């Protein structure tokens, strides 16, 4: 059977968007077990996300000006992270985050949301955490803080720390698993496609909250998997903000036609 050239078919970006629309039409909520249909659709979406490359979005991988560490750092005043909007519905949002060398997206949550992240170029380190709802008194005592700050404490667990490149499969989060994460650019600029379902919406209780790790040992490697830690909710860090860039890739249509 003759295979059609790639450019005569729907773009992979279009196919990802359509599959995301199907997958997240009625996703499992916090505490709900995913059903067979959702898991099958999620598997199809993961397969498509695994295939996508920077060239599919007309992205040219960015490099530092030269090989020196000083040149690799972003300049003061420039947004350390930028975002390219691809599409958004009530069910999901899809876009591309671009991190300059040395940049990080601080530890943050995704309340009641699913997500999928696929590196397009460069390398990222992702540290994934989850909230623990059981009462205090476990293996780690609460840090000594002023009374006014005690309400911002969150008992949590570090699930994993791993590095991802364009050859890696997607990183997946759900309302119940790996819902908090920090994303660091490693060894140069990086970009990743990002799907969130449903999108952030402050009016619907899906605002983004930032945290810092209060335990003595910062997450540094796989050997610390499932280590219980205390997090403290903080304001958006002053060193982090996100600018916007035009999306250069193929248009996405989610109409029923």
From TrEMBL:
Highest taxon in the source lineage: Eukaryota
UniProt keyword list: Iron, Metal-binding, Oxidoreductase
GO molecular function: metal ion binding; oxidoreductase activity, acting on single donors with incorporation of molecular oxygen, incorporation of two atoms of oxygen
Gene3D superfamilies membership: Jelly Rolls
Name of this chain's protein: 2-aminoethanethiol (cysteamine) dioxygenase b
């Amino acid at each position: 059977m003759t295979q059609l050239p790639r450019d005569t078919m729907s773009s992979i970006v279009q196919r990802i968007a359509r599959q995301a629309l199907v997958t997240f039409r009625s996703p499992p909520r916090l505490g709900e077990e995913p059903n067979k249909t959702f898991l099958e659709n999620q598997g199809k979406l993961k397969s498509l996300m695994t295939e996508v490359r920077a060239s599919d979005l007309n992205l040219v991988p960015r490099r530092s000006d030269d090989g020196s560490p000083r040149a690799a750092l972003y300049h003061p005043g420039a947004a350390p992270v930028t975002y390219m909007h691809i599409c958004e519905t009530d069910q999901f949002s899809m876009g591309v985050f671009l991190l300059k060398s040395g940049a990080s997206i601080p530890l943050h949550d995704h309340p009641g949301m699913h997500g999928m992240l696929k590196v397009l170029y460069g390398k990222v380190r992702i540290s994934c955490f989850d909230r623990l709802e059981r009462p205090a008194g476990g293996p780690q005592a609460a840090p000594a803080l002023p009374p006014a700050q005690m309400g911002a404490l969150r008992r949590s667990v570090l699930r994993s720390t791993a590095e991802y490149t364009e050859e890696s499969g997607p990183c997946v989060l759900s309302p119940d698993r790996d819902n908090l994460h920090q994303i660091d650019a490693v060894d140069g600029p990086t970009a990743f496609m990002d799907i969130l379902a449903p999108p952030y919406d402050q009016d619907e209780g899906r605002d983004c909250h930032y945290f810092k790790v209060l335990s003595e040992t910062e997450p540094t490697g796989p050997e610390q998997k499932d280590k219980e830690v205390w997090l403290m909710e903080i304001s958006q860090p002053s060193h982090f903000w996100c600018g916007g860039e035009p999306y250069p890739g193929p248009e996405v249509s989610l109409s029923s036609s």
